[in-house]
């Protein structure tokens, strides 16, 4: 039996990214700045921010226009390499 393949994404497309890290006053600005380098023209109305119940973590959710797998890979790698991000979904 073969393993089921993940569905292929057809680019360009709207793509939702959720970034989780330690809560800090500039965390949202940091995430938006990094994402903007890889997917310019983020619509501010497409950004949502949530704090954890104890205020230790912050999650930033953005919708971008993804142009291809290399773009997404580079974006995820830069966010993770920053040391400020715990998880990118």
TrEMBL record:
Source taxon at top rank: Bacteria
Pfam family, one: DUF493
Cross-referenced InterPro entries: UPF0250_YbeD-like, YbeD-like_sf
Family membership noted in the UniProt record: Belongs to the UPF0250 family.
HAMAP family (UniProt xref): UPF0250
Protein name stated in the entry: UPF0250 protein QVZ43_15125
């Amino acid at each position: 039996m073969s393993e089921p393949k993940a569905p292929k994404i057809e680019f360009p497309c709207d793509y939702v990214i959720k970034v989780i890290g330690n809560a800090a006053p500039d965390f949202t600005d940091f995430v938006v700045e990094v994402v903007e380098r890889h997917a310019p023209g983020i619509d501010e109305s497409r950004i949502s921010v949530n704090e954890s119940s104890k205020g230790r973590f912050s999650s930033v959710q953005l919708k971008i226009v993804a142009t291809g797998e290399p773009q997404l890979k580079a974006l995820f790698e830069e966010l993770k390499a920053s040391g400020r991000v715990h998880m990118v979904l």
